[in-house]
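Structure tokens please, single chain.
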Amino acid sequence: MLPSKFFNNSGPVNSRDHFCVPPIRRLDARKIWQLILQKKYFLIRGPKQCGKTSFLLSLAEMINRDGKVKCLYMNVESLRGVQEDVSECIRSILFEISSRARDTFDDEYLEDLVPEILSKRGPYQAFNEFLTQWSKRSDRPIVLFIDEIDTLDGTVLTPILSQIRAGYDKRPAYFPQSIVFCATHDVIDKQFNIKDATLQIGFFHREEVNAMFTSYADDNGLKLTHDALDRVWHYTSGQPWIVSSLAEEIFSVIVPAKKITRIMSRPVDEAFQNLLARQGNHLEFLTTKLRDERVKRALMPILTGGLLADQVSDIDLNYTRELGILSQNRNNFDNMLYTEVLPRALYAPVTYMINLSTERFLLPDQSIDTIKLIKSFQLFFRNHIDRLVERIDYGPAAYTLVFQALLQKLEDGTCTVTRDFSAERGFTHISINWRYPREQAASFLVKLVRIQSLERYKQMVPGLAESCENWKTASLEVPEIGPVSPEEMAPPPEIEACDADVHVIAININPKFQWEDKLPCDKKNVNGKTVHVWGF
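Here you go.
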């Protein structure tokens, strides 16, 4: 018999049908009820797919059970991208409200009001008049939830907000007592001076994720190890859509197929790889945002290890953070799934131009000849880098993305590629692990440099093996100074802690340099570890 409850990753969740954090607990419902009783107009915001709609629906249900007011939920997302005709958009919104009010409260008369109000008032007064007539005839005060308000552009959003502002003083007898807007981005502040509060709904806490997984396991006679729960948090960082998608993959696909009763870390790893391959609507939406100039400016320092302060405004960082792409400190991707999926989406336009196979680099003992591998990468860069960078079109970050695309082309059932990004660190850390024909690992520290003189280049590039602290950003013009001092030569922790082969990839993005001047390879001993430094 199938379980009566399941993990849901498509649409709103509710506690009756789904294993989830009860939506009503995502924010302080008592505080929101107090704002409604005080006749406040306010905003609830949070990243995409974090549970905003589920919370609003749950809250509306709770308020309507209480019976003191009529609480109606509506969503304007259906107008995304079709807002050229203001009159038609206002008409659609009024019919959406009247339809939901008919189904929720038996307010049959509202549909008949719409044509008359539109005819007499026009699009720039009709919304105000409709809400006035509804409030006037209602036996209880009206509370209106407007979801996805930020999908409206200025041609529709401005008249909607202006008409709400014009009716604000008539509440609650002749206008809604409270209006709650819901959005990813705060589009209300600049146009609406009667907003009293902004409430933020975020991602799950670790304890909530553990409780969800443990609850399902207990109900279905399964055992979850601590390692498995650790891996779940490692991959998701509490992002609700990813949590539910990962759980669905583990419990509904992998566990039944393999008849597992004790879930350790390996099924979680497999589920994550399946999500990477399948992706889904949420990830597809985020990838469309990568070409937004604000997002592009915010991500370039993360993809290269550059300085945020020098390159990105708070406006760009906040916008990208509001989408849920950035971590709370705004210097990295929010979670492992985004870390893997979003860079792949950026270099996808060039992957078809790359033809690599692990078999080409096998040694007699069946290990991978990483020296031969990187030499082939150098040759590929020399022949193709300019047009590939142009095709990716992501500023200096495109150079590191091309290198990642080369490594990614090796990934198959026998090896995996993982990446570690962080702004301000000065480089990107990429690891590749082979499981067949023989277990082997390699670590790549990819560093963008722009050095002005050949002499300085020859001094500095070998020093990268001992310190990845000499340059901080891809756009930095390195001064013409003498050799690096011993104090600067402390090995970076990525080298000291790495058991794999270590390769520092120094990509000089100064277009004045000829390939003949770039360092083919330099080998250094760093605290007993051999580190290869490559000039690209």
